[in-house]
Amino acid sequence: MRKRKLGTQGLEVSEIGLGCMGMSEFYGRPADEAEAIATIRRALDLGITLLDTADMYGPFTNEKLVGRAIVGRRDQVVLATKFGIVRHEDGGRSVNGRPEYVRAACDASLKRLGLDYIDLYYQHRVDPGTPIEETVGAMAELVAAGKVRHIGLSEAAPETIRRAHSVHPISALQTEHSLWSRDPEDEILPTVRRLEIGFVAYSPLGRGFLSGAIRSLEDLAEDDFRRHNPRFQGVNFQRNLDLLDEVEAIAREKGVTPSQLALAWVLSRGDDVVPIPGTTRRHHLEENVGALDIRLTPADLARIEAAFPKGATAGDRYPDMSPVNR
């Protein structure tokens, strides 16, 4: 397993990571904790070091699951978790970046994970009611206290990233990036590269769409959150399926799966880009790792670009885009 550096503060991770969110909720499948734990441990066996979770996944249960899975293997793990999205009993959510909340959230995550420190601690969403300097200042205090090794931001806008980085070095910026989510290429990637911040790409398979396994809403469980995602609805869905057809044809010609081709494309974006595809099953994990052996030629990349050009995806990433990229 090759490694990639995130930032200039010494954080080094496997070329591909593992997103653990779906092991606890959102995709409408009953939780299979035994298989989830086996998948995490198989990832470590394969040389994957970066595990990605958050306090709001579950809520609170995903960190506990990941903590159980890595018992006895802490030295093999770069553990990334997040704070900032607050879940409420009525199903609502809010964002909190106040310093006192940052400190309390970190302590709670450490307890759930069963760890003494967090390798990479992200602000999950920027709190518009709290200056980013105050939030990152509190995160810097956690680094000084030894509770956190490196800090990151998720879904932050360029100016916010610059302001945050002026308070304390940001090692990683995480946002959605894939063949069907290429917005970061406009301003986010140029910004983090100028600042020498690593880029972690979540949902590199387009929330499973780029696998080719989802051909209609009937392929999704009734409580799967993707049923409410604009890209999976109505005419948007069909337009996106049409885009995918050519990607699938290219994958067939290369003797790989659509998922592997899509991941290889993300990996080709640069040595500072680390995708974290999520999965709940070992066989999907092993398929994803197979993408590391694919080398896309300039001709391959040009053909993929022609088949799925930037900006071609129909529909927004979320039903409500207002909390994104503040």
Please give a quick description of this structure.
This protein is an alpha/beta fold and 326 residues long. The protein is built from 10 helices and 12 strands.
Unreliable stretches (pLDDT < 50, length at least 5) are none
Tell me the overall shape.
Answer: globular
What is the H/E string? EEEHEHEEEHEHEHEHEHHEHH
Instruction: Please give the order of strands in the largest beta sheet.
Output: 3-4-5-8-9-10-11-12
Tell me the number of strands.
12
Mean residue pLDDT: 94
Topology:
Blueprint: E1 3-6, E2 11-14, E3 18-19, H1 33-45, E4 50-52, H2 61-69, E5 78-83, E6 85-87, E7 93-95, H3 99-113, E8 118-123, H4 132-144, E9 148-154, H5 158-167, E10 172-176, H6 188-195, E11 198-202, H7 234-254, H8 258-267, E12 273-275, H9 282-289, H10 298-307
Helix pairs in contact: 1-2, 3-4, 4-5, 5-6, 7-8, 7-10
